[in-house]
Amino acid sequence: xxxxIRADASSAIGSGHIARCxxxxxxxxxxxxxxxxxxxGLPGQQLDxxxxxxxxxxxxxxxxxxxxxxSIEAPLPWQADIAxxxxxxxxxxxxxxxxxxxxxxxxxxxxxxxxxxxxxAAIDDLANRRHAVDLLLDQNFSGTPQVYAGLIDAECRALxxxxxxLLREEFRCPPIAIRERASRVLVNFGGFDAASQTYKAMLAxxxxxxxxxDFVAGAGNPAWTQMQELAAGRGHWRxxxxxxxxxxxxxxxxxxxxxxxxxxxxxxALGLPTLCISVAGxxxxxxxxxxxxxxxxxxxxxxxxxxxQIRQAVAALVGxxxxxxxxxxxxxxxxxxxxxxxxxxxxxxxxxxxxxxxGDDPATGEFTRESKENPND
Length: 377
What we know:
By secondary structure, the chain is of the alpha/beta class. It folds into two domains: 2-167 and 337-352, Rossmann fold; 173-334, Rossmann fold (3-Layer(aba) Sandwich). The protein has helices spanning 16-30, 47-52, 78-88, 107-112, 197-205, 224-231, 246-252, 263-270, 281-292, 307-318, 321-334, 339-352, and strands at residues 2-7, 34-40, 56-60, 97-101, 119-123, 135-138, 157-160, 184-188, 212-216, 237-240, 255-258, 274-278, 297-301. Helix 5 (197-205) packs parallel to helix 6 and helix 5 (197-205) packs across helix 10. 45% of the residues are buried.
């Protein structure tokens, strides 16, 4: 099976889309698939890393004519993106699947992408636009059939909820031990932390001389210089630009302070008690629902959370053993670490089943579905 993944990473978009697609790509490769990535050459892109990991890569332009912004939810000029893919994929064999993980692309792009594969899949967690796909994955607690009603075809297979959370193999493990009093904290707000929340957490944690703290921020963090200055002379603090064993740091921590993105499911699989701050609008609903389910403590959107509020929350949680134990138990009940294998299995299963679509040519097996103005018609 051949799969093409269309996703981007940048200092503005973050690295979450590539991270979860990479997890799925590894699961697919373990089961025998060949996986390639098509990504734009944006500042902070990860094409080189993907190539080093053995995946074929196709570089797309960093900007398109008429493009207004490059924020995480900004619509892309889909015709320009398709044209760029046509140039990049010349002479390439057809794929079995094109999988897109991009908030800026919708049903129009997906219909056009069928020129490269008979089946299209999408990863989403916004439920704010129509899709023309054969399979849709939303691994979030907020992903329900109700929110996607009218946004996907009735024939679309929907994989919804944390049962399908895309977690790396190292998170298929026993839960961490919950100690009577928390003594070690891990802080991370993604690969770029454009909102400088790591520095805010540093200001909050400067009041705790008895806590060992690891800050994983990335050297490209906008507050890197200030963080280095604040960490200097504090032997119980460790400031990391990059770590190759992030899962080990998570397993050794008693408390996590971070965003509401993909690490939510990693923390849940480990049963790691968390203070969550959403750093993007697309994280807010899921962060709130997870808090309501008793899986973490949600402090709110980053622009509304002060260093003093973080300090107070840490002070309350480090000594509250029953609450941290409850957070851990609720998390482990929801996430078991097998989601990537389940999604890969679904893609393989659907590939083995013959397509039954109007427009298929039974003599040649060629897929000739015509584009529709409205994919829900």
